[in-house]
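Please produce the structure of this protein holding zinc ion.
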Amino acid sequence: MTLLLRQGLVVGPTSTRVADVLVSEGRIVDVADTIDPPRGAREIDVRGCWVGPGFVDLHTHLREPGREAAETIESGARAGAVGGYCALVAMPNTEPALDNVALVSYVLDKGAQTPLDIAVAGAISQGREGRHLAPLAEMAALGVRLFTDDGTGVQDPSLMRRALEYARPLGVRLAQHCEDESLAAGGSMNEGVVSSRLGLVGRPALAEELMVLRDIELVRLTGGAVHFLHLSTARSIAMVAAARREGLDVTCEVAPHHLTLDETACAGFDAAFKVHPPLRTALDVAALRQALRDGLLDAVATDHAPHSPELKDRAFDEAPAGMLGLEHAAALTHEALRGDGADADPVRFFDVMSRGPARVAQLRARDARVRHSAHGGDVVAGEDANLTVFDPRERWSVSRDQMHSRARNTPYDGRSLVGRVTTTIAKGQLVVHEGKLV
Ligand SMILES: [Zn+2]
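Below is the modeled complex.
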């Protein structure tokens, strides 16, 4: 397949320029002011759009195996492609958990049948129970580069310490869902005046911040590496930024919902707004947006968490936590990047949607063992052709009935957004064109 993207704004790691991009046989073969179309090339007019490295999601719950009614690897990959993603990291809180070589291989094999690259995060502990370490070395030998018990955090500091010591020589990173269960237990939204008024039990910000603090100290002790998943409070971000200034190997992501919704959204008792960690205060949202604009975040990661309607339609305090993310993450990130009427910075946008997450997941280089291509690179000749085209002008409305995910649990139904993925080229193939699956 030969594709010629015409006159888009090509977004590099430091600057942008209007150019044509020629893709052939899985690679970018030329980037120039104007390129004569080779015979048989399909031309796509992308004037006014941003052209950058394909998005990488560090945090996708694909639900397979175990809860295929909510999502499968295949349906999740389709939703991801529509959202502009060329690579997804599948989280291990499936049923059973991805805590061994056989299950990791199963997901990798299924992922290889989709147009995207599906990487796997393995569990830190057996069964994600937080008691005994999972066989990290065996999974790392399969190409697993991130390990997490996400859904819950590793509660036992001595187990987390051992996991960090064990992971370090393997060159892999541990990713933490930061919530101290003894503080968060029973809570269904942020603890504060709003939860008191609604009569709901809260999950305090401190439940998250204590674990961030603990893990920063464990990184200092062990020389290990931690990625903080879906941080949601101003203090969490400040602690990570300070640790990084000290030279500790810590990275972090924020989810689109924590950048665009606050705790008051829970007032209607609609469980679509229930998520862990919970939606926080307006002050936290403002701090997260500022951190995004200041370049303090490695990634915006979706925490795409599909749930079947039978579960999610329950009462607020009984429904499972989590919301869809893949199909509107780019537009929400674009919204969060626009401060005070200013335009969003396209370089920062691709930093958090592609370059940063590819670096954290170690997807920058092609890896033959797990058959994935290279992600998060520059838009230059020779790179693997994983490209996303984003139109920052397009206005559209989210409709839960038009999602490609099997689930419908989006909190943004009916919300009007600005900016949309128009084209996704994954591994050299045109997967999404004019916003629709090819
Ligand atoms: Zn989580």
